[in-house]
Amino acid sequence: MRSAATLSGVAAAALCLYGCSAAAPSFKPAGPRVMSIGLCADQYVLSLLPPERIASVTSLARTGSVRTAALAARVPANHQLAEEVIAQAPDIVVADAFSNPVTRAMLTRLHYRVVELARANDLAAIRAETVRIGAAIGAGPRSLALADQIDQALAHLLPLAKRPSVAAWDGSGRLPAKGSLYDAAVSAAGGHNIGRDWRGGPFGAEALLVARPDYLLHDAHVLRTAGRESELAGHPLVDRLYRHRQIIISQEALVCGTPVTIDAVVELNRKLAGR
Questions:
Q1: Contacts of range 222-225, beta carbons closer than 8 Å, 24 or more positions apart
Q2: Are 163 and 156 in contact (CB under 8 A)?
């Protein structure tokens, strides 16, 4: 059986077909040039296409997860402006719910071919969207291979002795509810999202200490950015109880619903298993 460690790079593995090895032959595959104008769209484009076919991705991709940032550094960046689309002249533009609405409206009026991402709130939807987007941007075979990698990664998640409770908590007073992508990811990784049990109202430090989840799940920026959320997440009592039970997962991986989310599920599963 393949170990989870060999499956921890679903999104990164997507580009290995195009030359991760220095010995790989140099070639420029035929196909339309694609430009992404949204952070979630970036993740699909970077996962499905070789650099030669990517006109640009947003500058946000370079400051995202380590894996996404490394891939984004290989291609030009844009700032979601219609002027940039006109200058770069891509064959296809991929947009998402976070893309600049003014730019999206302008591209529609100018009759650009725009592929819109559908919202994926569970892992089955991510797999289906991977195949759909791949077909739409001229990466059908690659998307099918990536879908197979997703299946393999999820099939080889580590079994857990118990189902630990997890709070996706950053001090903001909010918890992701049942039906959210956070909930789907935590459940797939073998954990129980305590947001399923919360019946509304602010969820501050006091509520956290009463609920006593086994783990805290949040993005690293909460701890390094000054503000109320970082102050609560770093509360002395919270820190003492959860110093060694905090799991850091890039926020973009659990907001967008892309192959990067599958990497996050594998990583979360390994940490819940104590690996």
A1: 222/170, 222/171
A2: no
Tell whether 230 is covered by a domain.
yes
User: Do 177 and 75 fall into the same domain?
Assistant: no
Is 160 within a domain?
Answer: no
Query: What's the mean pLDDT when you consider all of the chain?
Result: 84
Instruction: Classify residue 116 as exposed, middle or buried by CB count within 10 Å of its CB (0-12, 13-18, 19+).
Output: middle
* Whole-number Å distance between alpha carbons of 161 and 273: 8
Cα(261)–Cα(10) distance, integer angstroms: 9
Number of separate domains in the chain:
2
∠ CA(126), CA(128), CA(134), 5° rounding?
100
What residues make up the domain containing 88?
4-155
Q: What is the pLDDT of residue 6?
A: 33
CATH code of the domain covering residue 243: 3.40.50.1980
Is 90 exceeded by the pLDDT of residue 48?
Answer: yes
Q: Do 83 and 122 belong together in one domain? A: yes
**Cα atoms found within 13 Å of the Cα of residue 84, Cβ hemisphere only:** 19
Give the model's confidence band at 113: pLDDT under 50 very low, under 70 low, under 90 confident, else very high.
Answer: very high
pLDDT at position 172: 66
pLDDT at 124: 97
H or E, element range at 55: strand 54-58
Distance between CA atoms of residues 151 and 85, nearest Å = 35
Look at residue 20 in the predicted model and tell me its pLDDT: 39
User: How many angstroms separate the CA atoms of 162 and 92, rounded?
Assistant: 46
AA identity, residue 100 = N
How far apart (Å, rounded) are the C-alpha atoms in residues 148 and 79?
A: 33
Chain centre distance of CA 162? 26
